[in-house]
Inverse folding.
């Protein structure tokens, strides 16, 4: 295959490393790139053969974007185009080698079966040292480099480069937010405008959050164009070994995907049912502990189920499989961890009733939990007779007697008002 394997032991001799490489200027690399139709950018000399204007750009030079950056076109590698394409980067070598190995080996299965402990691209000390000086030492730590960094992209790839770009862009935008906050504190120390400033700062914070997302999306689109990611994404991601192309477009494939979505809904319903049973049989002191344990156990179990559900979708590439697993994992876990809050905030007041033979006893039970309204005397409950009972209590008549049940939001304060008969009542 043109790969160069070698092995060596660790310093203490307890591990054996197997290194697989490829010559960056060899015929094997060129042959693999041509077979995989790998995309590479054109050189600046390739544009010298273009003697006509293209899209308003001068002839003989690569076009430039709005930020005056050269945008090179990407082309499939072929031996005929070898002299007009830029040389392979480190990340290109890694992608091609991983694609070749991925067609013959399943690394995840090798890890699960303990054949190998892990697999990873080898680092280059010189390149790591350059990135360390640029991003960590000196002003790089206080003020991150601006613009998409080609050095990070050429070594780690586009995904890691976008992470560093967002990290640097977010830190720079925080400076604007800090200036507004400092100005507000200084102004508030001289003029008492605390309530107005909080409202203005909250509005500015919302606009700032939306603005950085929109601006970064534009920067990302410009970087994707300059890096040729739309062309490279289709050729860089290898096909998974368990992908079955004969299932694409069949009813079986559609049924498996529908079944995986049904499993997510069924897991949410099952959790709600078990949680409801716990609430019935546990006391208030143990219910919180039991709920926490239930959420933890369900989270661990769902983490083991998600790979099986993603396998039912029959994804072709690892990128698609990872995105599917992320969505399936996030949907259930968001429901799992937000359920206690949503229940307490929106559901409990309408599902948990306080019932008693009469309104006085029901009010005592309800207010002993939520606290008595301000202005109400717990020792004298005559004001309950004057309150409109239909607003927050309903009378249930059954066997062996009648019961008054209270649910919903109970009053938090009491005040006096004038009736049509000019009498004062308390509610």
């Amino acid at each position: 295959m043109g790969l160069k394997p070698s092995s060596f032991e660790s310093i203490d001799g307890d591990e054996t490393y197997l290194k697989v490489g490829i010559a960056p200027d060899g015929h094997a690399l060129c042959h693999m790139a041509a077979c995989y139709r790998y995309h590479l950018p054109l050189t600046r000399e390739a544009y010298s053969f273009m003697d006509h204007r293209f899209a308003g750009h001068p002839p003989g030079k690569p076009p430039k974007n709005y930020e005056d950056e050269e945008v090179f076109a990407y082309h499939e590698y072929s031996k005929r185009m070898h002299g007009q394409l830029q040389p392979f980067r480190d990340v290109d070598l890694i992608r091609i080698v991983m694609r070749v190995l991925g067609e013959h080996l399943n690394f995840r299965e090798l890890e699960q079966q303990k054949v190998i402990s892990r697999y990873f691209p080898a680092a280059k000390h010189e390149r790591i040292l350059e990135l360390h000086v640029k991003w960590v030492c000196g002003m790089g730590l206080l003020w991150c480099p601006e613009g998409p960094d080609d050095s990070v992209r050429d070594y780690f790839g586009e995904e890691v480069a976008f992470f560093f770009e967002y990290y640097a862009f977010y830190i720079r935008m925080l400076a604007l937010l800090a200036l507004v906050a400092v100005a507000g504190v200084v102004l508030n120390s001289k003029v008492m405008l605390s309530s107005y400033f909080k409202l203005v700062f909250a509005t500015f914070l919302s606009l700032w959050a939306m603005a950085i997302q929109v601006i970064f999306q534009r920067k990302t689109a410009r970087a994707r164009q300059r890096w040729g990611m739309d062309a490279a994404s289709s050729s860089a991601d290898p096909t998974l070994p368990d992908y079955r192309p004969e299932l694409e477009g069949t009813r079986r494939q559609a049924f498996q995907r529908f079944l995986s979505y049904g499993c997510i809904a069924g897991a949410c319903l099952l959790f709600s049912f078990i949680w409801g049973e716990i609430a019935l049989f546990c006391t208030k002191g143990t219910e919180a502990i039991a709920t926490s344990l239930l959420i933890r156990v369900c989270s661990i179990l769902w983490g083991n189920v998600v790979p099986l559900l993603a396998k039912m979708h029959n994804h072709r590439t690892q990128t698609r499989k990872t995105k599917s697993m992320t969505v399936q994992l996030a949907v259930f876990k968001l429901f799992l961890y937000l359920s206690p809050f949503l229940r307490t905030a929106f559901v409990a007041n309408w599902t948990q009733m306080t019932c008693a033979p009469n309104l006085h006893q029901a009010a005592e039970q309800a207010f002993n939990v939520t606290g008595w309204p301000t202005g109400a005397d717990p020792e004298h409950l005559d004001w309950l007779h004057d309150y409109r009972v239909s607003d927050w209590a309903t009378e249930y008549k059954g066997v062996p007697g009648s019961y008054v049940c209270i649910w919903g939001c109970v009053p938090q304060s009491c005040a006096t008002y004038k009736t049509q008969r000019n009498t004062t009542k308390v509610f």
Remarks:
- The chain is about 55% helix and 10% strand.
- The beta strands are 4-9, 16-21, 39-41, 74-76, 354-356, 393-397, 402-406, 416-418, 424-426.
- Residues 135 and 141 are 6 Å apart (CA to CA).
- The chain has a mean pLDDT of 78.
